[in-house]
Amino acid sequence: MKAKKLPADFVVDAALAAAVEAHAEEGKLACAHAFAIAKSAQVAPIVVGQTADALGVNLHRCQLGLYGYPGHTKGWAVSNIADHPVPEGLETAIRAALDDDGGLPCVRAWQVAAEFAIPKMLVGYVATQMEVRIVHCQLGAF
Predict the structure, then answer these.
(1) Coil, strand, or helix at residue 68?
(2) How far is CA 136 from CA 15, 30, 141, 142, in A?
(3) What would the pLDDT profile of 18-59 be if each residue is shown by its tens digit?
(4) Contact present, 43 and 15 (Cβ < 8 Å)
(5) 75, 56: one domain
(6) What is the residue range of 112's domain?
(7) CA dist 142 to 13, 20, 72, 133, Å?
(8) Whether residue 55 sits in one domain with residue 23
(9) CA dist., res. 31 & res. 33, Å (int)
């Protein structure tokens, strides 16, 4: 694993580190667990991501399906998400959520999923099929 660059003033919080280590399996922390830790600790998700980085724990099982699944496949390759119906208006909503550079920020992808009451992974899948790059992971993975 390539070491991630952390902010110069970043200090690992012992309680947060303990939570990351408690939820990590084989040196990997699932995205959903990272968000649960952030919510429980009342910190921004990026802080959990940075804590994982500082501990050498890799994030995996991205909730948008982008990385961290068996065999280095996308999540939709192992979840059959492509079989889900695509709601009318989803592609339009994805396009409307793009940033100025044409990327779809992770947080906006989550918002689109909530708006349509669909799995986050379906938004990730459809965006990828549209050749839209998802950017700015809330945990700092990309």
Answers:
(1) coil
(2) 26, 17, 8, 6
(3) 999 999 999 999 999 999 999 999 999 999 999 999 999 999
(4) no
(5) no
(6) 70-135
(7) 22, 19, 16, 11
(8) yes
(9) 5
Query: In DSSP terms, which residues pair with 3 in a beta bridge?
Result: none
In a domain, 6, yes or no: no
pTM higher than 0.85, yes or no?
A: yes
Q: Is 120 exposed, middle or buried (0-12, 13-18, 19+ CB in 10 A)?
A: buried
Distance CA 61, CA 4 (A): 19
How far apart, in Å, are the Cα atoms of 8 and each of 4, 5, 11, 30, 51?
A: 12, 9, 9, 26, 13
Q: How many domains does the chain have?
A: 2
Among the listed residues 115, 21, 123, 38, the one whose alpha carbon sits nearest the alpha carbon of residue 75: 123
Measured between alpha carbons, how far is 94 from 25 in angstroms, rounded to an integer?
A: 33
Q: Which tokens in the block code for residue 105?
A: 């920020």
Alpha-carbon distance 101 to 36, whole Å?
30
Place of tokens 């910190």: 43
For residue 9, tell me if it sits in a domain.
Answer: no
The reply to whether 142 falls in a domain is: no
pLDDT digits (tens, 9 = 90+) for 69-100: 988 789 998 888 989 999 999 999 999 999 99
